[in-house]
TrEMBL record:
This is S9 family peptidase. One of its GO terms (biological process) is proteolysis. InterPro entries: 6-blade_b-propeller_TolB-like, AB_hydrolase_fold, Pept_S9A_N, Peptidase_S9_cat, Peptidase_S9A. It comes from the Bacteria. It comes from Deinococcus detaillensis. Coiled coil: none annotated.
Length: 607
């Protein structure tokens, strides 16, 4: 099959991320990698003047947000070193361009949340005390004296927003013995009077977010009824006005500056659509957009909304949507460089059968020109998370693989979000069980397609997708010819030990998913690919960053060592690549290009 899409040209297409409108509404700041690596930029919404405001000081990979200072003269951002996720905070003066490092404990992770209205303090989620908790950073002080811990709770705790007067803040945590539980709280700005204001039922994930401009109500969310719904919570009374209709999945967003609207994002069949709720009447208003994904919705001061929009055949562009007449204009157009967008193939939304009579939703990419009577190799792409999902957005990997003659199936297996609580929680205490059965069912579905060569199936994925890639080739050793686990997981007990020490919020999350590591020790061993490494028949390409704190490098090295101990040979039975300048995946265009090329060349040789 003739290749139309240059892999290098595709990987080099720039990305815009993290859009954030200033408090005054005159500018939007964002990350973009037009230079080959991410830098911070500002854009004047009136004049459309664009300015690059960092030169090498921005993070290599965007894993943390940034905030505007109260007076919009500075940007405060977090940055790690080559993917190690030891996020440290920096203060960028927009007038002078000076970037100043703020005080940081070397092993902590400091995430900026919001600037206080007084212009002197930052709300920060940080692990500097061990577990993730809420802190305040005083910009007028130096050293350790700048830090104040507002919470010291044993379970992961994260702040959401200051109240308009700066006297209180919203946060979310869990004080229940049920680790699946999350509740919403309000706290005084000095750390006093922690008060739970939202708890729909024990075990549900309930949270609070941004404050309404009246300072009396906050955005709220709950999954107690089986789907995520959005509401308005009156703080003093605890009364909630639920806005989302029954059976619909929505995530809460932001309030308009005049307080009239609360935005939400509706998740239906792997599309994301903005919805506005009238805060007086509760009536819903959908924006007039084609099917696709709307990301990062924000309000301007003049009755418009800003967000990114993408489909499976068009790349991200930044839109300004006029609420007065439901028209939109492109603020930052998508860039295609040397790539012809006409060569992209649409992602087909499909469902295939799995165990218990259930149907697994998925997105299928087919090569553009299939020859009659010819069969093609096929791949399953397993997503990360597991509480995540594939959307009908632009997938660069799927596009270059389809261009090279592979069918690519992207399934939202049990454990994925977007399809209700029952589906999301279907792999609790069962990693490598029902979720993996859905992967195997995906392979059976691919084999049923007349254009697929069932002897040439592969699987790949990163993070939890890497976990499923490892598990699939050892638990179903005759199913796949090749596997490409990327920053994957092979040893659950080792992962929990490392996460609990280095990223305690992830150690906590892992216990909510797989239970107690001692009580469930036998399960944890069985659901670790390293336990079953001797059963491997497929050929593997393992790729991992040495700076990865989420899925540490010992996950890949340990599996490789067990393969060698069982008589496997590197090259003959597997290939192994470490990246010394990466953490949990590629962060810049050079790293992305390198990973794409390695995978493409490997599949051409082995599948």
């Amino acid at each position: 099959m003739k290749e139309r899409i240059s892999l290098e040209a595709l990987a080099a297409l720039p990305t815009v991320a993290g859009l954030n409108i200033s408090h005054g509404g005159e500018q939007v700041a964002f990350y973009a990698d037009w230079t080959g690596r991410f830098e911070l930029y500002t854009l004047d919404l009136a004049t459309r003047e664009r300015r690059q405001v960092t030169d090498g000081q921005a993070p290599k990979a965007v894993r943390a947000g940034f905030v505007w200072s109260a007076e919009d003269s500075r940007l405060l951002f977090s940055r790690d070193h080559n993917g190690d996720e030891r996020q440290a905070m920096f203060d960028l003066n927009l007038a002078s361009g000076e970037v100043k490092a703020l005080q940081h404990a070397p092993q902590s992770m400091d995430y900026t949340v919001a600037a206080h209205p007084d212009g002197q303090r930052l709300l920060v989620n940080s692990t500097r005390g061990g577990q993730m908790n809420v802190h305040v950073y005083d910009l007028t002080k130096e050293g350790e004296s700048a830090w104040t811990a507002l919470t010291t709770l044993p379970n992961a705790t994260q702040a959401a927003a200051w109240s308009p007067d700066g006297m209180r803040l919203t946060l979310n945590t869990n004080e229940s013995e049920d680790l699946r539980n999350t509740d919403g709280y309000v706290l005084n700005a000095d750390g006093s009077d922690l008060r739970r204001v939202l708890s729909v039922r024990e075990g549900s994930q309930d949270s609070v977010g941004e404050w309404h401009p009246d300072g009396k109500r906050v955005a709220a969310s709950s999954d107690a009824d089986g789907t995520h719904r959005v509401g308005l919570l009156t703080v003093e009374t605890g009364k909630v006005q639920w806005l989302t209709s029954e059976g619909t999945e929505e995530e809460m967003g932001r309030f308009s500056p005049d307080g009239r609207w609360l935005s939400a994002v509706r998740n239906v069949d792997s599309t994301l659509t903005p919805v506005l709720y009238d805060t007086a009447t509760g009536e819903a208003r959908e924006l007039k957009l084609p099917p696709g994904l709307a990301l990062g919705t924000q309000f301007t001061q003049d009755g418009r909304m800003l967000f990114q929009f993408v489909t499976s055949t068009t790349r991200l562009e930044v839109l300004l949507y006029n609420l007065a007449d439901d028209t939109s204009e492109v603020l930052l157009p998508a860039e295609y460089g040397e790539v012809d967008p006409a060569d992209f193939v649409p992602g087909e939304y499909v469902k295939y059968p799995t165990a218990d009579g259930l149907m697994v939703p998925a997105i299928l990419y087919r090569p553009r020109e299939l020859e009659a009577g010819k069969t093609y190799p096929a791949l399953i792409h397993a997503h990360g998370g597991p509480t995540a999902q594939f959307f009908r957005g632009f997938d660069a990997q799927a596009q270059f693989l389809a261009d090279r003659g592979y069918l690519v199936l992207c399934p939202n297996v049990r454990g994925s979000t977007g399809y209700g609580v029952t589906w999301r929680d279907a792999n609790l205490l069962d990693w490598g069980g029902r979720d993996l059965a859905d992967v195997a069912a995906g392979a059976a579905y691919l084999k049923s397609l007349p254009e697929v060569d069932g002897t040439r199936l592969g699987i790949f994925g990163g993070s939890y997708g890497g976990y499923l890639s490892y598990m699939a080739v050892v638990k179903y050793p005759d199913l796949f010819k090749v596997g490409v686990p990327i920053v994957g997981i092979t040893d659950l007990p080792q992962l929990y030990e490392d996460n609990s020490r280095v990223m305690p919020q992830l150690g906590y999350y892992f216990r909510t998913i797989m239970g107690d590591p001692v009580e469930n020790a036998e399960l944890w061993r069985d659901r670790s690919a390293i336990t079953h490494a001797a059963d491997l028949k497929a050929h593997l390409l393992m790729m991992h960053g040495t700076n990865d704190p989420r899925c540490p490098i010992n996950q890949a090295r340990g599996f490789r060592d067990v393969l060698l101990a069982n008589g496997r040979e590197e090259g003959r039975d597997f290939e192994y690549v470490e990246f010394g300048d990466e953490g949990h995946g590629a962060g810049d265009i050079a790293g992305k290009t390198r990973s794409y090329r390695l995978m493409s060349d490997y599949l051409a040789r082995r599948l």
